[in-house]
Structure formats: structure tokens, C-alpha cells
Write a structure and sequence with these properties.
The complex is a heterodimer of chains A (about 850) and B (about 180).
Chain A: H1 2-9, E1 35-36, E2 43-46, E3 56-57, E4 64-65, E5 72-73, E6 88-97, E7 105-113, H2 133-142, H3 155-159, E8 167-172, H4 181-204, E9 208-214, H5 218-227, E10 234-239, H6 248-256, E11 271-275, H7 276-288, E12 294-300, E13 308-313, H8 318-324, E14 336-337, E15 344-345, E16 359-361, H9 382-386, H10 393-401, H11 405-410, H12 421-425, H13 432-479, H14 482-485, H15 488-507, H16 509-529, H17 537-560, H18 568-588, H19 590-595, H20 604-621, H21 624-637, H22 643-661, H23 665-679, H24 687-704, H25 708-720, H26 725-743, H27 748-759, H28 765-784, H29 793-798, H30 800-818, H31 822-845
Parallel strand pairs in A: 1-13, 8-9, 8-11, 9-10, 12-16
Antiparallel strand pairs in A: 2-7, 3-5, 4-6, 6-7, 12-13, 14-15, 14-16
Helix pairs in contact in A: 4-5, 4-7, 10-13, 15-24, 15-25, 16-17, 16-18, 18-22, 18-31, 20-21, 20-22, 20-24, 21-22, 22-23, 23-25, 23-26, 24-25, 25-26, 25-27, 26-28, 30-31
Chain B: H1 2-27, H2 35-42, H3 56-64, H4 76-87, E1 105-109, H5 119-123, E2 129-130, E3 138-139, E4 159-163
Antiparallel strand pairs in B: 1-4, 2-3
Helix pairs in contact in B: 2-3
Classes of the chains: A alpha/beta (about 850), B mainly alpha (about 180).
Chain lengths: ~850, ~180
């Protein structure tokens, strides 16, 4: 390496293969100083003037901007901001033809200059050596500096190279004919360029900086040598004039005898190349704080009266440049952006100058003739001799024509720098580079498509998997045994809740008193309808006492909860339900009537317990055979002659029968929940025990039944209900809704949440009503099941009354299907109607 | 006796070499890419079903089992050619008289007309449509394979198949443009 540096310092260069010597035509434009142009009428500033992503617009139409004000801010990687080239108004932000051979429209900011040319606040730095690496990188980034040699690579990325840079090469070769922008820039601003080089040296800390200048620019070489004299780390190297020595890879080979590996970047071999124009822009950005808003452009060609170099604001329309330099177009005039070798003919001159525009060439037909028609390749191999990348242009051409892209890749098409040397030497005038360009785009497109196809495949597979998963889940939902799916944790919770509920009525005498009041009301109704003649005198006294108790309790409750006030109407409704049930029970079974002569109050509890047991047993076995047994059990175990007990027993029996007949579990559950409300109502201190028994029975049944959660929640509701009859009725409604839902097999989560709602059933009836509404809504939702997402609570609530009617109808239907006598059905219908009515009332009350 | 020894010697040798070969066969097994995989990578993965199979993979399997190779309109002649090379059969023109160079399209939902029925979402084989019930849907252009499958189910016909826009990255020089020459 020491040897290499010594050789470089001696001025040795290592010629690259190939290359051509087109006429320079540089003297046309390099004799004059860089001119300043008058402000154009409008500036068309494209958002994207570099390789990488667009910045994000931070200005809007109609906004006043100052010279140097940022128009975009960088967002993604490789995005470089653009700045207002002069002060003025943004008249539009729209799609305009871009500085590209296709002239495909591109988002541009259109600025109408106000003529003031007033700068925004700048932040110049006098001693960049005191700035940190990051600060300098940020300055370079924020000032929008991108490579000005041709590709427009964001400079901040190059300057922040992760790899160690050994040689920093400054590209001042400017090998393409006609172009003299870098030449005159070096002549006029050598000191600035050297300052820019020093900033890059600070950032990259290279061993050596080599400035490569072609020997056809003696003034520039002299100016640079004079400016760089004091810095022994900068070597001004004169290179022979040969096209394309300004190509990055060619220049590296020329100056350091290193070759960039195929597909690699110069940093891979510790080399970094920057254009002189870029370095001057870096100097301007750091020392003067000026963003990149103007650049030197060579305006030349035979049709230009006053060829030369100009400072052009970015966004200046090409037409303005041409007009200012005097332009007399010939028929079928071509205007080329860039040089004659690598430039492209502009489709329109209404295109703004961008950061990479170094030359506008307006030749007449003599100096740059239209290419003639393509002739057959004669295999002269002149192209191979001229190729600076040691490729086989002729082979590439064949493969490109036959679209053999694999072969093209094998022949290293992507190492082609599109310099045009092959096409220049081709005697058959084959537009070789054009073929390569098309082939390159095709290959890139194919690769992109391959990537896209891979992703599409992946997405397709994932979708298929997802659909399979969903299907499986749906099947499982139908099949599953909820008891098995319930986690131990949930079971524990339910058991706890159950225990709580059981303890509650036992402790609370007041509550049972209230329940007693309900029972009394029922019994009263029963008196009027039952065939047995009641003996009520002493019971009535008892009742009066309990009424008092109930009132007291309700007052207490009202004190704690304002919403809870006694509602006679509702209790009447509940009573009506009880009555209807009792009637039904009486009608359905004759023998039960005989046996239900319950002797004493004390034994009521025993009777209730027996009922509960019977139920439990029944539920466990669910067979019609057992029905008889349970009935007989009831018969033998019921010595009490209290009418109430009799009624309860009758109800229980009726239920048992019905349950035995009813096939769907839902109706059983419905009935049970109802019966609980009723059976729980007989007023007695031992009612608590009864309720507990019921709850136990329920729990047992629940363990065996299909939907554990629902039953539990129902039993909880039911046992907790004696607090007041209204609530009980509401709870019954909820339970019904639940039963319905359970039948429709909603998801486990829903069930859980609902059971929670139920256990948390509020003390006041208003809340209970709301809960009922929710339960109904849920039931409805469950029915819809699939469209769960679309059903919103609002909708469900709005339809509450309708749902109530539906439920009533359903309730009507079920007994009709199962009951053997029409009377029973009529009774059940009456109950359902009453309930629906009540729910409606509650809804309207609310 | 000599014959006996010779047989034993040969048998032993055969056994040893057999063991070596057997071990080598297991130890140095080359995981060759099954033909279905290779065909599948050639197919354009639009999952459009125009071949009559529910996706590219099933078609790849069908080709491996001897189906025609010219049933993939989105792939065009290039795909047919590649498949012909792979399968060692004659390349044929596309079935159904499809154009050789298919124009790449992507779905575009006219969003103000979309009623949010989710039908197109269900139809999309690559989940490239986003939206929810009664909400406007839109197509993820980058993920859309241009398979047309969403067009049919749309009840309000608000889905258009638009050609993919040319960008500067995908733009190509027009090489077959007829040169304009002046004849004196």
C-alpha cells in the first residue's frame, strides 16, 4: 500500500481497457465566466431529484416561501429535502413532466418568484472542524445535497460510510464532450471545492485524497493545484483524456489500480468518489449555510448564440436557459439533457433543471446527426474493444434481442455503465445501449415480479391456512363439550358464586320476608281459583306481619338505592304468572292434587327440599320412568296441609312432567328457572334452606347438562331473586334469554361474560331491566351468531320490544310442541305474554 | 474349495461395498427440488384460477401430472416457454387465444360506490383487499396480483381492473418505434 501511495504521488495512472476519443467540443463553452441568469417567470421544482425516496411536502399551495426554505422534509431512508430556489409564492403543487427520457409526470412544486430573492435565515458554520461527525452529516442532509455528477446519490449516505475509506477520489474528469460545468467551477471556485474536500476528509478520514482531472483542462488543474497546495493529503492527478474516464469504476481503476467487484460499490474496496460540484455544494452548505438550490449548467450547441456556463436555479425551465443564451432552433430541433454520449433528448423544453442536470445541449443536425437506421451486426468486435468494462457488447446485443435474460446476467450486463462507447464505434449504427437499458429494466422487472410472486404465494398459503383454521374452529364449536372446555379456574369461580348465593338467603331474613310477601300474594290468588277451600285466617295474620317486614326491607333498600321502589303492578304480574302456573299444575295432574295436602308449616321446608331433590334426580336421569318416582316421593313426603306448599309441590310436579316430555334442554331450563321464581316465593324462614336445596339440585344438573355456565347463572339469578318479586321476574326474563341463547350455542367467551353479568345482577329493578335488555340483545345476537360483528348494542336495544314479543311467541311455540293438552299451552302462552308485557313496560319506564 | 473361497470373498466385498453405498446414499442425500416446486416458482402466483385449478400450486401439480402447460394467461408466453424448457415439451401458444403479452393490471375500488359488502374481500386469494362490513374497502395495490377474482362478486360493480402505471423505474425505451426518415 505504501508502494501504491508512492506510485500515486509520483503521478502514475493505470489506464482502464477500452475507451474512445470523441471530439471534445469543450472550448465552445469554457472560455467565459459563469453567468447569472435573470429570474425566470416560474420555477418547476420536482420533489424527487435524487436516487431514493421523496421527501414529505411541508408547504402548501398559495404559501409564501423564502429563498432556501425547505419544501420537503426527509422521511424515509435515502430521502433528501428540496428547497425553494428563490423567494416567491407557491402557485401550484402538481404533476409535471420529469427530467427523464420518458418525461413521466412527477410531483413538482411550482413557485412564482416575487423578484425579491430574499433568503431565509441561514446558519453558516465558520469552523466545521469543531462540529461532530453527526452534526456535519445532518447539515449535508438537511441542505439537500445529492450527487451532482449524474446519478444523484444522496451525499449524506456516502459521507456517513460505515466502511473505512482509504482513498477519497474527487471526480473532476468531466470526460463527456461539450460539458465544461466542472471545468469552469474549478477555475472560479477552486478554494471552495478544496474546503468541501476538507469537510469530506474530516468525515471520512481517508489516507489520501486524489483529485482526478483530465489533461484537457489545464486552467482547472492549475487552479486546483494552487488551492490545494497547503494540504499534502490532497493530490491533484492529471489523467489522459479518454472517454469514459469519468465513470466511477473507470476512475478508480485509473487512479488507484483497484477494481470494484461486480455488483459491489467502491466502498467495498475502501474507495469513495465524489463529484467536484457536490463538494462545492457541501462547502456552500457548511460555510454559508446555503442549501442546494442552484448549480452550474453548460448551455451549448451550435444553435446557441452564446454558449457558456450559467448558474441555474433548480427548477428553472430549460426553455428559459436556452432563451437567455440565445437560441435559434432548427427544424426538428433536439435538446439533449446531459452530454451527447449519455444524455437523453428531452421530450419538451418545459422541464425544470434538477440537481443532476449538468448540460443542456442544443445541437444542429450537422454536429449531432440523427442515428441512421440500424443495420445488421457484422461482428467486427469494435464494440468489445471500446468497452471500458471489458464486456462483450455484441453478445449482449444478441441476447438482449432474443430476450435471453439469464444469458445476459451471465454476461454481466449489470456491469455495463451505459457509457455508449460501443454504440459510438458501431459501424452498423446499432443502438446497443438502448438494448441494454431495456434489457436491464426487463430483468429488474422480472426480479421484482419474482419477489411479488413469492409474496403472493406466501399470502395465498397463509390465507388458505387461515380459512382452514376458521373452518376447524367452526366445526369444533358445534361439537365441543363446554364442560370439558371450561377451565378449572372458571369452574372455581362459578362454584364460589354459587356458594355466595346459597349463603345469602340463609342470612337475610328480610329478603325471605319479601319473598314471603310474594308467596302470599300468590296464595291469595290461589285461594280464589283453587278447588280446595282454604283456611286462611291464621296464615293471613302471619302474612300481615311479613308484609310489614317486607315493607321495612324495601324502605331500607330504597334508602340505599333510590331506584328501588316497590312496584305493585309488577308484583301483581308476577303473581299472575304464579297463578297461571298453579292452575296449569292443577289441571295437568289429578293425583298430585290429592297428595299435596301438606299438613304443617314446619314441614314446608321438607317439601320444598323434596321437590328440589326430585328435580335434581330428574335432571340427572331425565327419563319419564323417574317422573313417577319423584311424584310419589313428593306425595309421600308432603304431609303439610298448607296450601302454599301444595301449590309449590304441584308446580314442581307439573314441571317434572313437562321436563320429562320436553325434548330440548332449553325448555327444561326455561321452566326450571320459572319454577324457581315461583317455588322460592313461599314465605317461610326455612325458605332459605329450600332455595339452597334448589341451588344444589341445579348445580348437580348443571354438572350434567350441556351448558354449565348458563345453568349456574340461572340458578344464581333464581336463588338470589327472592329479594323482590320484580327483580325475580326480570331475572326470569334474563334466564329465558340465556336459555335461548345457550340453545343456539354461542361462543364460550360470550357465555362467561353473560354469566358474570348475571351474577353481578344489581339490586334495583331498573338495573335489572337493563340487564334483561342486554340478555335479550345477547340472545338475539347469538341467534345471528355469524354476523356477530355487525350487530351492535344500539340496534339490539332499539329492538328490545320486538324481541320481547318474539320471545313471547317462542315461548308460546314451545309448549305447543311439547304439551299434551292445550290448556297447558294456553297457560304458558299467557305467562309469556305477561312477561313480554312486563318487559315492554320496563322498557318504556326506562 | 477354491470356488467356495472365491464366492465368500466376492460376497464379503459385495456386502462391504453395499454398506458403503447404502451409507453414502443416506449421508450424502441431495435434496432435489421436486418438479412441482419448480413449476410453482415459474407460475406467476396470481392465484387467479384461469387455468381451471384453484390456485397456482394445484396447477403446478396438474402440470407435473401431465396437464397442458399453456393454461396460464397471466404468465403469458414467457411462462409457457419456461415451462416447456423445464418439462422438456414443445412450447405451445396460450390456450383460448389469449394475448401473448398480458397487460399487468391491478384492481381498483371506486370507493364512493363501495357499499361495504365484504364480498370482494372473501374472493381475494391473497388478502389484498382491506375493509369491514358497511365500511369502504380498498385494494393494497402492492399486494394485488390482478387476478380479476374480486370483480365478479361485487354487487355494485365498483371494481375496475386498471393497468399498472408505468414509473420511471419500469419505463422502457421504445425500441420498435418506426424511425422517421425524410426521403428526398
Amino acid at each position: 500500500m505504501e508502494k501504491l501511495i508512492a506510485q500515486i504521488k509520483q503521478g502514475k495512472v493505470w489506464p482502464f481497457p477500452g475507451g474512445i476519443h470523441p471530439p471534445g467540443q469543450k472550448t465552445i463553452s469554457n472560455s467565459q465566466a459563469i453567468a447569472r441568469l435573470p429570474l425566470p417567470d416560474k420555477l418547476v421544482v420536482p420533489l424527487k431529484q435524487h436516487i431514493g425516496a421523496n421527501g414529505q411536502l411541508i408547504v402548501e399551495k398559495g404559501q409564501q416561501v423564502l429563498k432556501g426554505q425547505a419544501l420537503t422534509k426527509p422521511v424515509a431512508n435515502w430521502s433528501v429535502p428540496i428547497h425553494a430556489p428563490t423567494s416567491g409564492t407557491i402557485t401550484d403543487i402538481c404533476q409535471m413532466p420529469s427530467a427523464h427520457p420518458s418525461a413521466l409526470p412527477e410531483l413538482c412544486v411550482i413557485i412564482e418568484p416575487d423578484g425579491q430573492d430574499s433568503w431565509c435565515a441561514l446558519a453558516p458554520v465558520t469552523t466545521p472542524s469543531q462540529l461532530s461527525h453527526e452534526q456535519l452529516i445532518d447539515i449535508i442532509h438537511d441542505r439537500g445535497i445529492a450527487g451532482m455528477g449524474g446519478a444523484g446519490f444522496p451525499t449524506y449516505i456516502k459521507a456517513d460510510s460505515r466502511k473505512a475509506i482509504e482513498y477519497f477520489i474527487v471526480n473532476a474528469v468531466e470526460c463527456e464532450p461539450y460539458i465544461t460545468a466542472d471545468d469552469v467551477l474549478m477555475r472560479e471556485h477552486a478554494a471552495g471545492i478544496i474546503a468541501g474536500i476538507e469537510i469530506m476528509q474530516q468525515l471520512l478520514t481517508p489516507t489520501l485524497t486524489i483529485v482526478g482531472i483530465e489533461d484537457n483542462k489545464p486552467e482547472a488543474i492549475a487552479a486546483m493545484q494552487a488551492a490545494a497546495e497547503y494540504n499534502d493529503k490532497i493530490i491533484i492527478q492529471t489523467v489522459p483524456t479518454v472517454y469514459p474516464s469519468g465513470g466511477e469504476k473507470q476512475l478508480i481503476k485509473l487512479l488507484t489500480n483497484k477494481e470494484v467487484p461486480s455488483g459491489g460499490i467502491p466502498a467495498d474496496i475502501g474507495v469513495l468518489v465524489q463529484n467536484v460540484g457536490t463538494l462545492f455544494a457541501v462547502h456552500q452548505a457548511v460555510y454559508e449555510g446555503k442549501p442546494l438550490i442552484e448549480r452550474v449548467i453548460t448551455v451549448t450547441g451550435n444553435t446557441i448564440h452564446n454558449p457558456g456556463n450559467v448558474w441555474a436555479l433548480l427548477g428553472t425551465e430549460i426553455k428559459h436557459l436556452l432563451d437567455c443564451q440565445g437560441f435559434s432552433p432548427v427544424p426538428q430541433q433536439r435538446v439533449v439533457m446531459g452530454g451527447p454520449m449519455m444524455g437523453f433528448t428531452l421530450p419538451t423544453v418545459r422541464i425544470g433543471v434538477v440537481k443532476t442536470t449538468n448540460c443542456i445541449l442544443a445541437p444542429d443536425h450537422d454536429e449531432l446527426a440523427e442515428p441512421g437506421p440500424e443495420k445488421a451486426c457484422i461482428r467486427c468486435s469494435a464494440c468489445a474493444d471500446a468497452c471500458p468494462a471489458s464486456l462483450l457488447p455484441q453478445q449482449l446485443q444478441w441476447f438482449a434481442k432474443s430476450k435471453e435474460y439469464d444469458k445476459l446476467k451471465e454476461h454481466n450486463l449489470f456491469d455495463c455503465i451505459e457509457c455508449g462507447a460501443c454504440a459510438y464505434v458501431c459501424p452498423s449504427e446499432i443502438p446497443l445501449v438502448q438494448y441494454y437499458r431495456v434489457a436491464k429494466v426487463e430483468i429488474k422487472e422480472q426480479q421484482a415480479e419474482q419477489v411479488k410472486a413469492e409474496r403472493a404465494k406466501e399470502r395465498f398459503e397463509l390465507r388458505k391456512q387461515r380459512l382452514e383454521r376458521e373452518q376447524e374452529a367452526r366445526q369444533n364449536r358445534h361439537k365441543r363439550k363446554p364442560a370439558a372446555e371450561k377451565s378449572a379456574d372458571e369452574k372455581q369461580k362459578i362454584a364460589d358464586a354459587l356458594a355466595r348465593v346459597k349463603n345469602k338467603p340463609a342470612k337475610d331474613d328480610d329478603k325471605s320476608a319479601v319473598a314471603a310477601a310474594i308467596a302470599r300474594a300468590k296464595a291469595k290468588k290461589q285461594n280464589q281459583e283453587a278447588t280446595l277451600e282454604p283456611d286462611n285466617s291464621d296464615v293471613a295474620l302471619e302474612r300481615a306481619a311479613r308484609k310489614e317486614q317486607a315493607r321495612k326491607y324495601k324502605e331500607q333498600k330504597a334508602a340505599s338505592n333510590t331506584a328501588a321502589d316497590p312496584d305493585d303492578k309488577k308484583s301483581a304480574v308476577a303473581a299472575a304468572i304464579a297463578r297461571a302456573k298453579a292452575k296449569k299444575a292443577a289441571a295437568s295432574e289429578d293425583e298430585s292434587d290429592n297428595t299435596t295436602a301438606a299438613p304443617t308449616d314446619d314441614k314446608k321446608a321438607a317439601v320444598a327440599a323434596a321437590i328440589a331433590r326430585a328435580k335434581a334426580k330428574k335432571a340427572a336421569q331425565a327419563a319419564s320412568v323417574e317422573k313417577d318416582n319423584s311424584e310419589s316421593e313428593v306425595a309421600t313426603a308432603s304431609p303439610a296441609d298448607d296450601k302454599k306448599a301444595a301449590v309449590a309441590a304441584a308446580i314442581a310436579r307439573a314441571k317434572a312432567k313437562k321436563a320429562a316430555q320436553a325434548e330440548p334442554a332449553t325448555s327444561v331450563e326455561n321452566d326450571n328457572s320459572e319454577s324457581e321464581v315461583t317455588t322460592a316465593s313461599p314465605a317461610d324462614n326455612k325458605k332459605a334452606a329450600v332455595a339452597a336445596a334448589i341451588a344444589r339440585a341445579k348445580a348437580k344438573k348443571a354438572a350434567q347438562a350441556a351448558s354449565v355456565e348458563n345453568d349456574n347463572s340461572e340458578s344464581e339469578v333464581a336463588t338470589a331473586s327472592p329479594a323482590d318479586d320484580k327483580k325475580a321476574a326480570v331475572a326470569a326474563a334474563i334466564a329465558r334469554a340465556k336459555a335461548k341463547k345457550a340453545a343456539q350455542a354461542a361462543s364460550v367467551e360470550n357465555d362467561n361474560s353473560e354469566s358474570e353479568i348475571t351474577t353481578a345482577l344489581p339490586a334495583d329493578d331498573k338495573k335489572a331491566a337493563v340487564a334483561a335488555a342486554i340478555a335479550r340483545a345477547k340472545a338475539k345476537k347469538a341467534a345471528k351468531a355469524e354476523q356477530a360483528a355487525s350487530v351492535e348494542n344500539d340496534d339490539a336495544e332499539n329492538e328490545t320490544s320486538a324481541t320481547a314479543i318474539n320471545e313471547a311467541e317462542i315461548a308460546e311455540d314451545k309448549p305447543e310442541q311439547t304439551a299434551q293438552d292445550k290448556k297447558k299451552a294456553a297457560v304458558a302462552a299467557a305467562i309469556a305474554r305477561a312477561k313480554a308485557k312486563k318487559l315492554q313496560q320496563e322498557g318504556s319506564d326506562k | 474349495m477354491t470356488l467356495f473361497y472365491a464366492l465368500i470373498a466376492l460376497g464379503t466385498l459385495a456386502l462391504i461395498f453395499g454398506l458403503i453405498l447404502g451409507f453414502a446414499a443416506v449421508r450424502y442425500r441431495v435434496q432435489s427440488n421436486p418438479i412441482v416446486e419448480q413449476i410453482d416458482t415459474i407460475l406467476p402466483q396470481t392465484q387467479c384460477g384461469q387455468c381451471g385449478y384453484p390456485g397456482c400450486r394445484p396447477y403446478a401439480e396438474a402440470i407435473a401430472n401431465g396437464d397442458e402447460i399453456n393454461k396460464c394467461p397471466p404468465g403469458g408466453d414467457a411462462t409457457v416457454k419456461k415451462l416447456a424448457d423445464l418439462m422438456g415439451v414443445e412450447a405451445k401458444p396460450l390456450a383460448g387465444g389469449e394475448q401473448a403479452e398480458p397487460i399487468k393490471t391491478v384492481a381498483y375500488i371506486r370507493e364512493d360506490e363501495c357499499i361495504g359488502c365484504t364480498k370482494c374481500i372473501q374472493a381475494c386469494p391473497v388478502d389484498a383487499i382491506v375493509g369491514a362490513t358497511r365500511q369502504m374497502h380498498t385494494v393494497l395495490i402492492d399486494e394485488c396480483t390482478g387476478c380479476d377474482l374480486c370483480v365478479e362478486p361485487c354487487p355494485v360493480d365498483c371494481i375496475d381492473m386498471l393497468p399498472v402505471e408505468t414509473t420511471k423505474q419500469t419505463w422502457k425505451w421504445q425500441l420498435d418505434a418506426i424511425p422517421v426518415t425524410q426521403i428526398d
